[in-house]
């Protein structure tokens, strides 16, 4: 019997499951005729494993229930296999709670009998169950803990599963990197089934990265491999991914919906409910693309019975299809309801994480929903479009409701990274140190993503700190978007300020302009024009920062001036904004230094990720506590810091720290209302949480600050690139400045590009003197920049809300 079962496993891996099932049934017949119930249970378990591979999970679960019930006297290793198998089948059927119970019992059994290899598998699969339940940080944490167990076992399956979690979380490039490692491991160990599964996940990643053609090619290769080996269940799953890749193409074929429906019929007879749901959802999406609304409505009715099925991406796709169907039949209230439910679901998925990076990445799934919301609202009045934009952009700017736990090992890792970065700075060519830095960054990023902490206290609609700091609207991001828009319009009128909220859609750029209580939609250039302009601006700003003098300096500045003039002509001039303006940029406009664009030079312009961020960040502080810190290597840092400190001397003593360490920056943020940092800044495009400011002992990273209890309402970063950010999702960008806003700082002053040190020093001294005199922060910055001879002074911009010191 044992020999037959072992042979069935080999046949399944090499030749397919049909011959393997025949061997398993022979073994079961032997056990039932001549052996005891525990060995019968083992045969049921092996049969279940083969049925699961064949895509017949309901039959597999029946076999495993028989094994569990009849095998009470099984040896620990055999009982472990049955528990693990039933947990995996329950996962396939979407039964996360039952799966978690089986994996937890299997892990406890393994630990009791010192079966480290088995404990690794059980604990890892417990993380998979957490993913299915929607708790992505917990899933990552459990998987990472399991991966650290000292066991000699192929990590291909474990890395594959963790790659799936990263994809679900929107961390697509990170998932691809891990899946490539898993593929190498699978090839080395000749794990053919795992290699095919990895190909499918890489195909999913390529769809999200916008390369459906390559995704389709990979899914086809996987399907051929599964077909060659007779693994029909996985063959069908490959076909589901192939349909998704076809649907993601610019012009999907009209036969796509019919192909998806045919696959759904096949899956319905095989007892694979998760893939059946995905195929029907794909059919509905394809029918919507071709305008077959009868098919969409019929499928939407069938899918609605399982609206909560699947992971976050699947749930977001279902809500989008439902909203599209409702919008087509003219039921705009139902469409809006589906979009609200989707936004709430996304908010809950983000709420369990304290990681800025993970929270930003998860909003990847909001992109198509925001696009639909905007499309439905664009034909209505402009305020409706503002509501649609706020619904999704407020997600990206709201602070984490949980604080990461104290983790000495993680803190030690950050200290090590700081030391390695210092070594690399003194010897940039040391390849070994650079490799250690990248490896440590990957490890630390994973641990930050998996951090789950305690709830942070929230204040009410208005509040006042011990220092007399008054905020106009705390926790506005939790308010209804319609109420936020109404409040913003009222506030704009009281402050004599205009609003321009940019949006992309239908292949073009547009802006909702609010001026003197009236709103209007202004159509601007095409997406292609905007992307080309953004590319030119990035190149010109980089060149201007690098070529400060010499024969090329004039040419470089002229090119930059020409590009900025084009922004004025194509983007700014049609808006007809007044003196004071609030800008809500969209993708392609997040790095524009508005204070350098002709028509906005010398005028107060505040840049915000969302309308609620502008309301929440608006702060007035009586007798503010001020901290000034400076890092090494800036020729003008000491002069700038001393002048900034002197600007506040009449209020209370303010001694600049000219030799500040990383911990001093965090301490200043936790104790002062205003923090001014003069230091070298570095934006980390691959991992934004490792964007940093260079201090005496090395860099202070954005991730250093995730657990800080920040008091500061105004942070001024006189450093290069501190205002830059990485596009984590269509509605979410992450960098040093945007990260500080998300962590609760009301207003941040930073530049998205490099600014000469002498220019920064001249602007910042004047800026703080104006703040001390009681001027509004945006006004003070605009006037200070206008008073500087260098046009690059306009690169500094106010991000977030309005800030003012009360006498």
Automatic annotation (TrEMBL):
Top-rank taxon: Bacteria
Biased composition (Polar residues): 451-475
InterPro entries the UniProt entry points to: CHAT_dom (IPR024983), TPR-like_helical_dom_sf (IPR011990)
Domain CHAT as annotated: residue spans: 569-784
Region of interest (Disordered), ranges: 451-480
Pfam families on file: CHAT (PF12770)
Protein known as: CHAT domain-containing protein
Lineage of the organism: Bacteria, Bacillati, Actinomycetota, Actinomycetes, Micrococcales
